[in-house]
Amino acid sequence: MARNCKESYCLVLTRGSTGRPLHVSFSRTTLFGGIVSFLSFMAAFAYLASQFLLTPPDASTLKKKYEQRLARVEAERVDLQEDIKRFRETREGMEAAMQALGQQIGTMQARVTRLDSLGEQVVKVAGLDDGEFDFAPDPAVGGPEETLEGQGGPVKLGGQDLTELAREVERLSERIANRQGQMELLRGMIDRRNVRQQMRPDGWPTDGGWLSSHFGRRIDPFSGNPSYHDGVDIANKEGAEVKAIAPGVVTWAGDRYGYGKLVEIDHGNGYRTRYGHNQEVAVELGESVEKGQQVASVGNTGRSTGPHIHLEVLREGKAIDPRKFLDR
C-alpha cells in the first residue's frame, strides 16, 4: 500500500492491468467536509428550484389568463350560435320556398290539364284535325339528360327532391310552350274561319218582303217561255231599304242591262252578291260596306214587273241558289 494511506483514505486509479497506479489520499476531515459541502449545495439547489420552477404564478395572472380564455370561448360560442341561427333561418326559408314551389307546380299542372281539355273541346267543336292539334299526350321531345345533383347525390330538403322539382318545372314549361303554340295556331285558324264565315253571305236583304220567285228554271214573265233564273226575287214595297247580307267592297253601283239600277258587292273568299231593280243606289263604286248596311232602296227598274229585289249569289263567278244563305 501507499505510504500515506495508513492514516487517511486512498483512492487508487490504474490504467489497464499493467499501468502505473495513481494514488490519491485524503483525510477523514477532508472527506467529511466534502460530503457536507455537497449536501449543502444540493439543498440550496433544491430550494432555488422550488422557488423559481415549482412555485405557481401569481393568482391575478392566472385569473387574467382564465378570463381571456373564457372570453375567447364565449365569442366562439356566440359565433356558433349565430351560425346555427342563420342556418336554421336559411333552412326554414328554403323549406317554405320548396313548399310554395310545390304548390305552384300543382296549380300549373291543374291549369295545363284544363287547358288541354279546353283545347280538345275547341278542336272538336271547330271540326279540326285531331292529329294536328293533339292536346292529350305530352309533346314529343328529346336530347341528353343533365342532372342538377350536388356532391354526393341529388339535393333534398324536407323530403323533397330539388332535382325532381326542377325537372318538373322544366317539363311544365315545355308543355305550356307547346300548348301556347298550338293555341295560337288554333286561334289563327278559327279567326280566319270566323272571317270567312262573316264574309260568307247570310241574312235577309230587306225589312219585310217575301220570296216571289225561286232560283233555277222558270217561265219567263215577259216571253212566257222556259228560262233560267240566276237568283231569287223578294217582293217588297217600293223605297224599302236594301241591305248587304255580308261585308265587302262595292264592285258595281249603277245601271246595268236587265238589272236596272244594280249594286254588286265582292265579299272575298270567292263570294259576290248582286242586288237588282233598285229605285236608288246608296253606295259608290269601291266603297267598303258592313253587313246590314243599306246599299240601295227597293224599286222597279230594268226588266221588272213590280217593286222587288233581284238577289244573286255568285261563288267563283258561278251563280248558286241564294235560298241557303237567306236567314228567314
What can you tell me about this protein's structure?
Residues 63-104 form a coiled coil. InterPro entries: Cell_wall_metabolism_enzyme, Dup_hybrid_motif, M23ase_b-sheet_dom. This is Peptidase family M23. Residues 228-322 form the M23ase beta-sheet core domain. This protein is of the alpha+beta class and 328 residues long. It folds into 3 domains: 9-54; 118-199; 210-325, Glucose Permease (Domain IIA). The chain is 41% helix and 24% strand. It has helices at residues 28-54, 59-126, 162-199, and strands at 9-13, 22-26, 156-157, 160-161, 210-213, 216-219, 226-229, 232-235, 241-243, 248-256, 260-268, 271-281, 288-289, 294-298, 308-315, 318-320. The strands form 4 sheets. Strands 5, 8, 9, 10, 11, 12, 13, 14, 15 and 16 form a 10-stranded antiparallel β-sheet that branches. A two-stranded antiparallel ribbon has the order 1-2. A hairpin with a 2-residue loop joins β3 (156-157) and β4 (160-161). α2 runs parallel beside α3. The longest helix has 68 residues, at 59-126. The protein is rod-shaped. The termini are far apart. The relative contact order is 0.07. The model is unreliable at 139-159 (pLDDT under 50).
